[in-house]
Amino acid sequence: MSFSFNHLGNYGHLGNQMFQYAALVGLSIKHNRPFCIPHEGVFGKHYYQELRSNIYDAFEINPIKGISSYPTVNEPSFEFSQAFFENPPPQNINLLGFYQSEKWFAHASSFIRKEFTFKQQYREIAEEMRKHLSGDIVSLHVRRTDYISNPNHDCVGLDYYEEALKLVPEECKVIIFTDDPEWAKAQELFPDDRFFVSETNCPYTDMCLMTLCDYHIVANSSYSWWGAWLSNSKKVISPKRWFGPGLNHNTKDIYCDGWVIV
Q1: Residue 38 parent element (H or E)
Q2: Residue pLDDT, tens place only, 181-201
Q3: 213 burial level (CB within 10 Å; 0-12, 13-18, 19+)
Q4: 17-58 pLDDT tens trace
Q5: Are 137 and 169 within 8 A, CB to CB?
């Protein structure tokens, strides 16, 4: 019996792909079944948007590749399903869903971290950037451009970042990771004597740099979720409101144990 995920690469950008791959690996290891994912040439669009990133470009992964003809089984619910995790159908199945919880792969975390090792060209740039900032560093993520007019994905407000910044040491420098750098530079909350806006224009280098930070203020985004999870963070702060009014998901399983919810 095997698992596949035929829509991986066409069902979300980098952070979503990482959740889907990690859940696939987690289920595979738990039930001792092989798995496959599509070849990188099949990766394409997400909700009619061109993919801005993909796991093949980012990481040194080398899974079995292929598109299966297995029957598709939808994620039982947005939150983690213990019943499905323990007893998936006893046959070949193709997974579909977002699987946004560490609970799908916590038992395989060491293997997942190894799989999500960034390619050398991104590590070298991120490590060089980190060397130029001494002491502990805060990663702060702001996602705006594709959230502003999307009722499913609300932008978290400056009030969230103001409260979150009170929970990290004042002496720490802060790197802002954002898809709207000009907006970030214009905010009085982020004065340039302490805050630096990353402008690598590379999602892989940015996430790699996130993993090298010591504190994390994440947005309601799977991208910075992974930047925090792959780090050795001393504290992760996350917004209570994960989705906009267009979605009514139970988000309790998105957050990891020990994260501070604001």
Answers
A1: none
A2: 999 999 999 998 899 999 999
A3: buried
A4: 999 999 999 999 999 999 999 988 877 654 455 667 899 999
A5: no
Residue with tokens 């805050």: 195
The answer to whether the CB of 68 falls within 8 A of the CB of 2 is yes
Tokens of 163: 């409260």
Question: Domain locations in the chain?
Answer: 3-115, 120-261
**CA-to-CA distance for 27 and 80, rounded, in angstroms?**
13
Are 261 and 51 spatial neighbours (Cβ–Cβ below 8 Å)?
Answer: no
- Distances 110 to 72, 117, 123 between C-alpha atoms, Å: 28, 11, 19
Q: In CATH, what number does 120-261 get?
A: 3.40.50
| Alpha-carbon gap, residue 171 to 187, rounded angstroms | 19
Residue 59: phi and psi, rounded to 5, are -125, 165
CA distance 184 to 172: 18
